[in-house]
From TrEMBL:
Residues 1-24 form the signal peptide. Residues 35-291 form the Periplasmic binding protein domain. CDD domains: PBP1_galactofuranose_YtfQ-like (cd06309). It comes from Roseateles agri. Pfam families: Peripla_BP_4. This is ABC transporter substrate-binding protein. It comes from the Bacteria.
Length: 318
């Protein structure tokens, strides 16, 4: 317990507050509005936030928005009404949060964007954005494909499973990938549609791609592993060999992706770490201690092709 906290507690008890109330009075309260439970990545992110809050002795008020923006906004409003110390959330989509962020600012409650960002001009509405550089993840996916296809003059027909429409990862992973492959006209995205980051939708959309384009498809670029895993089922049910007849590139680096790579069904997964809990709790504590925190905290990540999957698998933490 910090000296400062000890002093505050002693003062509260000396003022007649029972110790258990003094301890509760001093506890930092964090309101966290989570996107939902749509993917393995999200489940690992939720676990990281909950475990880290417990570890840090921070009282966590947790809301699951079930991938609906109106639920996230409602949860943030409830946190404001409850006068939490800090609000953190991963915006399900990049627009439409301006009004509620202004309400939090008016209530003098600092907001931390965790994982995803918002497309708001006024960046005074949040104190920090911590999470991956999704555009760079898209570039890494594109660079891996360019390297794999170098030396070939043949057209490379790509189908793309986009993440949740309007979300920062979907917008930026598309942008980064296209930035890299657009340098060579042999790469053509022939179909692109959202699979909403879920296995079920990823399978459904891949079935439609296969029906429409069939053996013309050379590559699948999926914005997350869950959609890739769903698509792998569709590819197998169509009598094709995933990672051989169709090269598959995805993002996240969750356990399911490593298992698919070790089974020879996924070519590469670009890492996107969900383990943001420790950084978030440290930022919350620093904020409450009056320290300034960086406006942008970028997660460091790698790229894992199937050739290294078995060796790396024991090190995976999500
Ligand atoms: C990315 C995160 C995305 C993951 C998906 O940081 O927001 O949302 O890539 C998850 O798996 O659903």
């Amino acid at each position: 317990m910090s000296t400062q906290r000890r002093t505050v507690l002693a003062a509260l008890v000396a003022a007649g507050l029972p110790l258990h109330k003094a301890l509760a009075a001093d506890k930092i309260v964090l309101g966290f509005a989570q996107v939902g439970a749509e993917s393995e990545w999200r489940a690992a992110n939720t676990q990281s936030v909950k475990d880290s809050a417990k570890e840090a002795g921070i009282e966590l008020k947790f809301a699951d928005a079930q991938q609906k923006q109106e639920n996230q906004i409602k949860a943030i409003r409830a946190f404001i009404a409850q006068k939490v110390d800090v609000i953190a959330f991963s915006p399900v989509v990049a627009t439409g949060f301006g009004p509620v962020l202004r309400e939090a600012k008016a209530a003098k409650i600092p907001v931390i964007l965790s994982d995803r960002s918002v497309d708001e001009k006024d960046d005074s509405l949040w104190v920090s954005f911590m999470g991956s550089d999704f555009t760079e993840e898209g570039r890494r996916a594109g660079r891996w494909l360019v390297e794999k296809m170098k030396g070939s003059k043949d057209t490379v027909n790509i189908v793309e499973l986009q993440g949740t429409t309007g979300s920062a990862p979907a917008i930026e992973r598309k942008k980064g990938f296209e930035e890299i492959i657009s340098a060579d006209p042999k790469f053509k995205i022939i179909r692109s549609q959202t699979g909403d980051f879920t296995r079920a939708k990823g399978k459904e959309v891949m079935e439609a791609f296969l029906k429409a384009e069939g053996k013309k498809i050379n590559v699948l670029y999926a914005h997350n592993d869950d959609m890739a895993i769903g698509a792998i089922q569709a590819i197998e049910e169509a009598g094709l060999k995933p990672a051989k007849d169709i090269t598959i590139i995805s993002i996240d680096g969750v356990k399911g992706a490593f298992e698919a790579m070790m089974a020879g069904k996924l070519n590469v997964s670009v890492e996107c770490s969900p383990l943001l809990g420790p950084q978030l709790m440290q930022a919350v504590k620093d904020l409450k201690a009056g320290k300034t925190i960086p406006k942008r905290i970028v997660t460091q990540e790698g790229v894992f092709p199937m050739e290294v999957a078995a060796k790396e698998f024991p090190n995976r933490k999500y």
